[in-house]
Amino acid sequence: MRILVVEDDTNLNRQLKDALTEGGYVVDVAFDGEEGHFLGDTEPYDAVVLDIGLPQMDGLSVLEEWRRAGKKMPVLLLTARDRWSDKVQGIDAGADDYVAKPFHMEEVLARVRALVRRAAGQASNEISAGSVRLDVKAGKVTVDGHSVKLTSHELRLLSYLMHHKGKVISRTELTEHLYDQDFDRDSNTIEVFVGRLRKKLPDDCIQTVRGLGYQIAED
């Protein structure tokens, strides 16, 4: 899953990126509204963490521009605790949730997980496909109740496929959602990790749809 953080405070931006990366996400960052708007307008993200008080272009304007352009990625707003009006304006502008500063990183992570989960139509942090079970919060995978050790890249790939069970996911879409903007998208990395995953999971878990991509079938 790929997340965009738009926050002008350098230290907070770094802390958010570190926490989200530790939580298993690929994270792009921006430090002002114009840069954040450009990235959100041109790159596919599974969620955005967006501060309201940004230089160049404020967060509410960024959000309104995205929604007018038809961008549907879930957005978590960062607001000042005493500015209730910002929260109301943010929700009306198209935000999906908000958290007030100062906040605990665990709360941000929980809210991002919820946004990604709801956007994918999942009701729980535990997603199952046959005998395979993914605990999104813990970042753990089991098969028939037995723990399966995955690398961070393998886990991100499996997580994206399981969040979109029943949908055929192209190699391009996987690359766009699993790696940051500097990743070499002409490489065969996706095929390599699919091959490694298949050795650790049941034979019929990840299916290839020839010429289209990969899918994990609905139960």
Automatic annotation (TrEMBL):
SUPFAM superfamilies: C-terminal effector domain of the bipartite response regulators, CheY-like. InterPro entries: CheY-like_superfamily, OmpR/PhoB-type_DNA-bd, Sig_transdc_resp-reg_C-effctor, Sig_transdc_resp-reg_receiver, WalR-like, WH-like_DNA-bd_sf. Pfam families: Response_reg, Trans_reg_C. Keywords: DNA-binding, Phosphoprotein, Transcription, Transcription regulation, Two-component regulatory system. One of its GO terms (molecular function) is phosphorelay response regulator activity. Residues 124-218 bind DNA. Gene3D superfamilies: 3.40.50.2300, 6.10.250.690, Winged helix-like DNA-binding domain superfamily/Winged helix DNA-binding domain. One of its GO terms (cellular component) is cytosol. CDD domains: REC_OmpR_EcPhoP-like, trans_reg_C. The modification 4-aspartylphosphate is found at D51. Residues 124-218 form the OmpR/PhoB-type domain. The keyword Phosphoprotein applies. Residues 2-116 form the Response regulatory domain. GO terms for biological process: regulation of DNA-templated transcription. SMART domains: REC, Trans_reg_C. This is DNA-binding response regulator.
